[in-house]
Amino acid sequence: MKKEADIGVVGLAVMGENLILNMASKGFTVACFNRTTSKVDSFVEGRAAGQAIIGCHSVEELIGALKRPRKIMCMIKAGSAVDSLIALILPYLDEGDIIIDGGNSHYPDTIRRAREVEAKGLLYVGTGVSGGEEGALLGPSIMPGGSGAAWEEIRPIFQKICAHTEDGAPCCDWVGPSGSGHFVKMVHNGIEYGDMQLICETYQIMKDGLGLSNDEMSEIFSRWNKGPLDSYLIEITEHILRHKEEDGQSTLDLILDTAGQKGTGKWTVSSALDVGQPLTLIGEAVFSRCLSAIKDERLAASKLLDGPANTFEGERSVVIDDLEQALYAAKIVSYAQGYQLMREVAAEQGWKLNYGGIALMWRGGCIIRSAFLGKIKDAFDADPELVNLMLVPFFRQALHKAQDGWRRMVGLAANLGIPVPAISAALSYYDGYRTARLPANLLQAQRDYFGAHTYERIDGAKGQFFHTNWTGHGGSTASTSYDV
Predict the structure, then answer these.
(1) Residue 420: helix, strand or coil by DSSP?
(2) Given this model, what pLDDT does residue 1 score?
(3) Which of 160, 410, 426, 461 is the most exposed place for a label (fewest CB within 10 A)?
(4) pLDDT classification of 346: cutoffs 50, 70, 90
């Protein structure tokens, strides 16, 4: 009798293949399908040979190989391809079967798809999967959300194949209703954009400002990875900096300085604008990738636009210590902003997110995994209604300790003409957040002057709006007061 599969996976790109191998290594039987069926044969006869992996040449064959309730995980490109696949497999499914989207889908699309699939009596899960190629194979962070009844069916698989913390806790738990899993993964990716940009700015100051070699920088990142900055991205930066070609050249120095992006960072920033959250650091990280992409314009501008003629004079070791403090402080801000965004969108959607649990899910397997996340979990476990991470004593003290070096670093970068948009945006946000009175009173006066948009007064009741006839001939008619 042919063995039935515990789960089916559609899509044999890097993540799909490695997740399948991960599942099989944990004792699960997996059926797989790919639109290009030659990839199925290559996989089953190659990397998957001899394992409990069933190759299928059609959707009908895939679904026929599955235990009930059927569980089908889609590991394909986000967008219309997901809708096409759902339409293709729905006719073969029965009530209670589960469709799982493990790609980087935009969470509003996931909400829509869940509604459509559930209307047909099926269950739908949108799950973030983070960790890249290695994480998918050895244990990723998994962030599922959607039809609640699906969780008990997929939990045994997901919590066995995911990464685990040092004390054995799985880096996977149920996030919440439809869309929430992909939303949390989107914010994860936004924070990832921010972390990477902060590291890149630090690298440029060390390289162009201090004149350090790649090997010297590698040693610095190695040292930092043993302290508060201990994280996957710091670790791989150390490895990248010391990697050499066969002829001895640094691989990093041969890579073109134009960054790509797949959209999740942009979605994160757009979501922040939609709910009015100041996601300034991640915004700068996204725009920095956009700026890097206009390489030809930058090359032309480099011959025409002047910068400062200053060169660094001083103790490198002092600057390196300041850089460590600036990087750590800006990282705190990045997570504070990301968690603020999660709080606001969750309130808008009516989700009850476990913010400490989310930090735990990110502790292992994922790209932003770091020791730092344990402190975030502790903070939300102590106060689930926490407004901003910067207000927690641990982070407040860390920011206080770091800010002198952080400020010196931003000033040094400006004097040397080295762009640090994310590090400086983090400092501006910190200063703005701790400022009791911002100059928005002047901004409101300007809006009222040219558009009669009205303003509130410090000597008036909250919600009471006023208009001033600034010119003497504008009259008393005012616009309706509203915020977008």
Answers:
(1) coil
(2) 40
(3) 461
(4) very high
Query: Catalytic residue at 216?
Result: no
Overall average pLDDT of the 439-448 stretch: 95
Sign of CA dihedral 429, 431, 436, 437: negative
Take residue 134 and report the two structure tokens written for it: 């290695």
Q: Under the phi-then-psi rule, with left for phi > 0, alpha for psi from -120 to 50, and beta for the rest, what region is 222?
A: alpha
In the set 17, 39, 153, 192, the catalytic residue is 192
Put simply, whether the predicted model's pTM sits higher than 0.85 gets the answer: yes
CA distances from 375 to 202, 344, 370, 372, 379 (A): 23, 21, 10, 6, 6
Phi, psi at residue 157, to the nearest 5°?
-75, -55
Catalytic residue list contains 185: yes
Helix 214-224 to helix 232-242 angle, to the nearest 10 degrees?
Answer: 160
Question: Which of 71, 185, 266, 377 is the catalytic position?
Answer: 185
Contact predicate 193/292, CB 8 Å: no
From CA 43, how far away is CA 309, in angstroms rounded?
57
Exposed, middle or buried, 227 (CB in 10 Å: 0-12/13-18/19+)?
Answer: exposed
Indicate the average pLDDT of the chain: 94
pLDDT value of position 477: 75
Alpha carbons 22 and 7: distance in angstroms, whole number: 12
Cα distance between residue 207 and residue 201, in whole Å: 10
Whose structure tokens read 């998994």? 142
CA torsion angle 374 320 425 362 (round to 10): -20
d(C-alpha 79, C-alpha 11), whole Å = 14
Using CA atoms, how far apart are residues 441 and 443, in angstroms rounded to an integer? Answer: 5
In degrees rounded to 5, what are phi and psi of residue 301?
-65, -30
Query: Which of the 8 DSSP states describes residue 206?
Result: I
- The span from the CA of 18 to the CA of 333, in Å, is 34
**SS3 for 233?**
helix
CB atoms within 10 A of CB 186: 28
In a 3-state reduction of DSSP, which class is residue 228?
coil
